[in-house]
Design a protein that fits this description.
DNA binding, nuclease, two-stranded antiparallel sheet, alpha+beta, Trna Endonuclease, Chain: A, domain 1, Arc Repressor Mutant, subunit A
């Protein structure tokens, strides 16, 4: 069976007995088969597994065959779940963390309705509301280990769309497609920051990029969404893994200009301090550097205007045909070092 968590990946997991470790990994296998997405940290998976076990009064693998569900009257309040997992699974969760049980540990399980609430119409913070396993899933759990169990799960749940599939579909629908100047395409996750990066690539670079090729762009969910590592290394650009990478990097071979562009939504314009950092990091670069701060609109620009460094440029997406030059040359270009 797949090991979803290993002792070397989680300190709290490594401190548990081998029996509890096996129980948690078995639980995650069951939840995985039920279609619960498991793309979380080892600790978050561990917490989800043990709260699930508490909801079914399962202390050892043998207890799967006699799991309790909502019909059996077993429903633990969040404070009771904390007591249960502390007593049986070597945890030391604070009694004041009861809200985390509901908002984090049980969240996916309740959305998928693998775990049901004893009083679903009560207020969100109702302290008397309990949590228990859905009888439909409990019956499958009782048969866990039998021949053809996965096929049994598939047949029983064939009319229920798995949460992992639902979330994947929503993420795909929410993606933002971006066309590179070279004609290639990228897919960003949604959000105003990524909308701005899309505008930089599709609106700024065609206007002011002098045929620039995108060499790097990050995404809020993928820091290295697009990276031309070898081309950056040819320009003697600084270490690609460096935390000071700007949001978008593009290179104009015609001008030998390297554009370092910050997409500002909530923070991060090219300030005097940021400019000094970037100048130090690019001191060996073979190309001339153009520093640009981009905003979605003028109200956002006004919010950060006092922070923007001299000898840099500003571009505002809702006024794409204009640039704001902070001192120096009349036209866009690199400044002498």
């Amino acid at each position: 069976m797949k090991q979803y968590i290993s002792p070397d990946k989680s300190k709290t997991f490594s401190e548990k007995t081998p029996q509890v470790q096996e129980l948690i990994n078995t639980t995650l296998y069951i939840l995985d088969t039920f279609g619960i997405p498991l793309n979380a940290t080892p600790r978050r998976l561990e917490r989800m597994a043990i709260t699930f076990l508490a909801s079914g009064d399962i202390k050892k693998v043998a207890d799967f065959k006699k799991v309790k569900d909502l019909n059996s009257g077993h429903a633990l309040k969040t404070r009771d779940i904390i007591i249960y997992v502390n007593n049986h699974f070597g945890e030391n969760i604070s009694s004041g963390s009861y809200d985390d049980i509901r908002r984090k540990d049980l969240k996916l399980l309740t959305i998928a309705e693998v775990i049901l609430q004893s009083s679903p119409n009560s207020a969100t913070n109702d302290s008397t509301r309990g949590y228990s396993i859905n009888p439909t899933y409990a019956e499958l759990i009782r048969n866990f280990g039998s021949k053809g169990w996965e096929k049994m799960v598939f047949e029983q749940l064939k009319n229920i769309e798995p949460l992992s599939k639902k979330l994947k579909k929503e993420r795909e629908i929410a993606k933002v497609n971006v066309t590179l100047p070279s004609g290639g395409e990228l897919t960003f996750s949604t959000g105003e920051h990524n909308d701005l990066q899309k505008a930089i690539i599709e609106d700024f670079l065609p206007r002011y990029g002098h045929g620039a090729e995108v060499l790097y762009v990050g995404d809020t969910s993928d820091k290295y969404l697009y990276l031309e590592k070898e081309k950056l290394e040819e320009l003697n650009f600084f270490e690609i893994s460096h935390e000071e990478l700007p949001d978008v990097i593009a290179y104009s071979k015609n001008k030998n200009w390297l554009y370092l562009i910050e997409a500002v939504h909530s923070s991060g314009p090219i300030s005097e301090l940021r400019l000094i950092q970037l100048q130090k990091l690019t001191k060996d670069c073979k190309a001339d550097i153009v520093y640009i701060t981009a905003f979605l609109n003028r109200p956002k620009f006004r919010q950060f205007i006092t922070d923007i460094a001299w000898e840099t440029e500003v571009w505002i997406a809702d006024n794409p045909d204009h640039l704001v030059h902070f001192n120096g040359d009349k036209f866009l270009g690199p400044y002498k070092r």
